[in-house]
Design goal:
This protein has helices spanning 24-28, 37-46, 59-67, 101-110, 121-126, 157-177, and strands at residues 50-55, 79-81, 89-93, 116-120, 148-150. By secondary structure, the protein is of the alpha/beta class. The chain has a five-stranded parallel beta sheet with strand order 2-1-3-4-5. The protein binds iron/sulfur cluster.
Length: 182
């Protein structure tokens, strides 16, 4: 038979050649898997982040673009969601004017725990171009706790995607460290 005519895997015989030895753990508890429950939950949570997204200003256009097919956030498990009731992450995209302070706090409080916040762009981070303006909050962290800041005016979609990946890393690291301080 010609080599080109052989099927992949043809000639394979179980038990022949090199194979790793069974670990002691596998011999004692075959097919058992151990992990901290916090880390397992974190693995599920970080790969299924539903974002409560609302646009406050120009940064929102970049956020919308990040959700579109070219960048395809779905592949990270990120689904945009119009209600706080089932959302995991609030993306604050744009200028936080003082009139919006109370609605933002209310939406945050309506989100179930665990929840996270991304401040997208310089306005949401520290007021940006409206620094010390009479009508603008100097960063959304004056209202609610922020986990990740995405710099830029506006940040490109790639920057927001990087911010989301940073948040995923934070969720996993926090779970790994949970219970250690006590
Ligand atoms: S950071 Fe720049 S792009 Fe984003 S909302 Fe503020 S002014 Fe607009």
């Amino acid at each position: 038979m010609e080599i080109g005519e052989m099927n992949l895997g043809q000639g394979y015989q179980p038990g022949r050649g090199n194979s790793p030895a069974d670990s002691v753990f596998n011999r004692a508890l075959p097919n058992a898997l151990t992990a901290k429950s916090d880390e397992l939950f974190a693995l599920a949570r970080k790969n299924s982040l539903w974002t409560l997204s609302f646009g406050l200003a120009c940064c929102a256009i970049e956020m919308i673009s990040t959700h579109m097919s070219h960048h395809d956030l779905d592949r990270f498990g990120v689904v945009t969601w119009p209600s706080p009731r089932q959302a995991d992450v609030m993306i604050v995209a744009g200028t936080v004017v003082k009139k919006m302070a109370d609605p933002i706090k209310l939406l945050y409080e309506q989100m179930p725990d665990p929840k996270w916040v991304i401040a997208m762009g310089s306005c949401a981070t520290n007021g940006g171009p409206y620094y010390r303006s009479y009508s603008v909050v100097m960063g959304v962290d004056h209202l609610i706790p922020v986990d990740v800041y995405v710099p830029g005016c506006p940040p490109r979609p790639e920057a927001l995607m990087h911010g989301i990946m940073q948040l995923q890393e934070k969720i996993q690291k926090d779970a790994a460290q949970s219970g250690e301080a006590g």
